Structures are given as C-alpha cells and as structure tokens.
Amino acid sequence: MRALLVIIIAYLLGSIPFGYLIVRQKLGDDIRQSGSGGTGATNVSRRAGKTAGVITLLLDAFKGTLAVLLAKMLLTGPPPLVDRLVAAAAIAVIVGHIFPVWLKFRGGKGVATGVGVFLILAPVALLCAGVLFVAIVALTRFVSLGSITAATALPVCVWLQSMFVEPVADLGPLLTAAILGALLIIFAHRGNIGRLARGTESRI
After folding, report:
1. What is the 3-state secondary structure (H, E, C) of the chain?
2. 70 is a domain residue
3. How many domains is the chain partitioned into structurally?
4. Does residue 156 lie within any of the structural domains?
5. pTM across the whole model
6. Residue 19 resides in a domain
7. Residue 203 forms part of a structural domain
8. Which domain range does residue 121 map to?
9. pLDDT tens digits for the chain (204 residues)?
C-alpha cells in the first residue's frame, strides 16, 4: 500500500504544471496555445522570457528530484525491491509531467524532470548525457534535437557509469528507468521530430 501511495505521489508531483502556472500568472495566457504547445522551459522562455523559462526549468527539475528522494525515504524492504519501486516512482514523475492530470494529460516534454530524477539516481550518466546535449545544441541550435539525443544516450551512459565509475549491484531497475524515461521523452518530442524532418523546427 505504501509503495502504491509513493508512486501516486510521484505522479502527482510530476503533474504540477509549473510552466503553465507561471505563464498564466504573468501573461494570463495558456502556454499550450503557443509555440510547441508544451509547458516546459523552452516554450515558456519563448513566450514569457528567459527568467520565466529558467524558473520553470528549476521547478520542473526539482519535482523530479523530490519524487525520487521521497521514494528513497519512504520505501522500505529488501534492497532489490526498493530499487524497483524507486525506479517506478522515477518513471511516474516523468509520466506526470508529460501527461498531467490537471491539464487533461497534455503537459511538457519531460526533459527537466528527467534531469531532476537522474541527478539523484545516476549523476555521472546525467553529466555524460548533458555534455552531449550542450554539444548538439551549440552545433545546431535545436534544443529539441539536443534533448532527443541526450535522452537516447542516457541508458548507454547509465550502463557505462555502472561498468566504469560506480558499479550497481542490481543495474536492472536503474537501466529500465533510463530506457523508459528516454522513450517517454522521445515520444513527447514526436511533434518536434516531425518539424525537424520538415525543416520547420524553431532554433534558439
């Protein structure tokens, strides 16, 4: 029962639409009607300015971190079971951000929330993926392409972290969280992928 409650809390934390609330408070607009239609930091920056975008980024990352920390604090039992449940909470908070119950399941892309999650679960792997993100964005000026590339690389970086930096006794749950998180983020970017293919994606 506690495990289910923790996963539900993680989803509800992820569902808090900070970008939507910030733009609604500042401009009175629905951010989902602008740009890419997402509630994340990139779209907020384009609509409401860089400061609003940075605040959105930090808050979205924070809810990912908080969900994982709460899961680690509240869940008890054999370590393999706890690892699986923490991974489930990590996935749930990303799902909540992308499909928030408060906004009829239409939210952001999950990138910042995923950063918050893996800042706790696999910081070295996150750094590796983050370097790739910065390089892609610097070369192409497409935030979406950087996000998709970094998300795709994250499971590989998680495996490399376990092999060469900090061995994980039971890598399965962490690797599963990384793979599912990556798939969710890529799915959330499906519109961006279409625009990239057509050459109509916005650059920063």
Report:
1. CHHHHHHHHHHHHHHCCHHHHHHHHHHCCCHHHCCCCCCCHHHHHHHHCHHHHHHHHHHHHHHHHHHHHHHHHHCCCCHHHHHHHHHHHHHHHHHHHHCCHHHCCCCCCCHHHHHHHHHHHCHHHHHHHHHHHHHHHHHHCCHHHHHHHHHHHHHHHHHHHHHHCCCCCCHHHHHHHHHHHHHHHHHHCHHHHHHHHHCCCCCC
2. yes
3. 1
4. yes
5. 0.95
6. yes
7. no
8. 2-198
9. 899 999 999 999 999 999 999 999 998 888 888 877 788 898 999 889 999 999 999 999 999 999 999 999 999 899 999 999 999 999 999 999 999 999 999 999 999 999 999 999 999 999 999 999 999 999 999 999 999 999 999 999 999 999 998 888 899 999 999 999 999 999 999 999 999 999 999 888
